[in-house]
Amino acid sequence: MTSGFFSGDLLRGLAFRVLFFLSLALLPIGLIAISQTQQIAGQNRLNAELSLVAITEQAATAEAHILQEAFGAANAVASIVKLHRNDAEECSDFFRAYQEANPLYNLVGFIPTTGIMECSSAGSTYDFSENSTFIEALADPSRRIRPIESSTVTNRRVTAVITPVYKGSDLDGFVVISIPFEAYRTIKEPALQMSPLALMTFNKRGEIITSERGLDVSADELPANVALAVFTDQDSAVFEAENLAGAQRVYAIRPIVKDAVFAVSVWPANTPFLNPSIVTRLGAFVPIVMWAASLIVAFWALNRLAIRHIRKLVRQMRRFALNRNLPQQTLGGGVPTELVEMEAAFINMGKSILQDEATLEDSLREKNILLKEVHHRVKNNLQLISSIMNMQIRQAKTEDASLVLRRLQERILSLATVHKNLYQNDDLVRVDASVLLHESVNQLLSVGLAPGSNVKVTQKYEPISLEADDAAPLTLLVSEAVTNALKYVTNDTKSGGEIEITLDYDGPDHAKLSMRNTTGGVPEQEGTGLGSKLIHAFARQLNGQTNVEETEGQYKIEITFPIPQVAKQVYDY
After folding, report:
1. Which end of the chain is more exposed for a tag (fewer CB within 10 A), N or C?
2. Is 163 exposed, middle or buried (0-12, 13-18, 19+ CB in 10 A)?
3. H-type helices in 144-277, by residue range?
């Protein structure tokens, strides 16, 4: 690409033309304008959010005063209650006098860790050991505030301010100050430049404590899909969300009692604080107009100089990829030097690929033919050996020698079946186990079962693809198992005998070979155990697990082995 740029044909270079037109369009002033506009918009938004937070804090001044005073009173009482807590009557008199001096509170009391409140301004004993708020305070002994719909002591709607009392480093109990809900109605709201739709306070759990318009009215203004509790670890927060009525709202949150009480104000989505002025809005479009103009110029230049020619070159490459046809016509005149060189390189590469593919195809076809010929000759040689052994069997002088030769002949024929399936398969590497086993078993049955033997044979094979390295031991394994089964079922005079052979999947990458036969008959001659040893040896060659179940009148063997999904690595010996 850069060769055309540095060559003598400078004006036709693609790099020169693209850089020239982009230099005219993408001026640094565009980036500066975008950066400044973003900074101004961000600062305006931050100022608006700070204003909402400040108004929220100002609007909640009265509530903050009451609740801060309550927490301060609780801390003061906590230091004094240690002196009177052992005398319930004296302690109750102290709390009663304190409550009468502070009519804003309707209950002041001390709850020890046992949950039995004997010391309070109410003068009675109350059991809070099963109270959920008390249990929660024991688990996390920190100061807290909770709204209570119906107080156990006063039977009124109250706000409970709870402060832990420690004796040394051990928790001794909690001071509880109860504020009646009616106390908030006497609050004189401060004069504000703009009033929110709703003003509420909530605790660290997100529970509403007070509401300027009443809980029933303000409940619909709570955010629908955002929990207020997630903002209690922040110094302040402003976010937008839908309220429970489905209207879009802006929420501003500010702590009014540290780590305990928070104020939230609700504003309409079109509040002037967050809506930029018309000048600010128009200023935001200036960088966009510059950006659009730059794109138009750049696109026109690139399309005229490069894109249309590149698309034509891409179509030529796709056509070559689909049907191996090289272009008959070049891109034509007026094309940048880089693209002309690219097209010439593509055509030369295509010709080289066509020649190499033809050579590879001829080589592959020749190798496939040779490989099929190898498997065919191996099969013929194995069958020739089988024929020679057949002649030897006829001349055997003893039945034992004849039996040994016949068993060896069956194994050789099983291997011949594997090679036959390999050269008849176009893959030459994998074979269908169902076809292979069906042919091998039928071949054994045709020799091992006499006509009219009344032996029921059931075969069920899944079409599982196996490599040649696994097909040979599997075929020999089945051959040994079938031969062993025939020793018993052919002598079963009771029911005629039964043989069942199945091959199916055992999971995505394993197969299970199962063979069951009756054992009612007794073999004519005692076996040497070689067949069983070969079965286990072939199973190990398959990396399989063997399971044998032998019951009265029945013998069953199962071999579970893996099916390699990736072709084994081939080594050049």
Report:
1. C
2. buried
3. 215-218
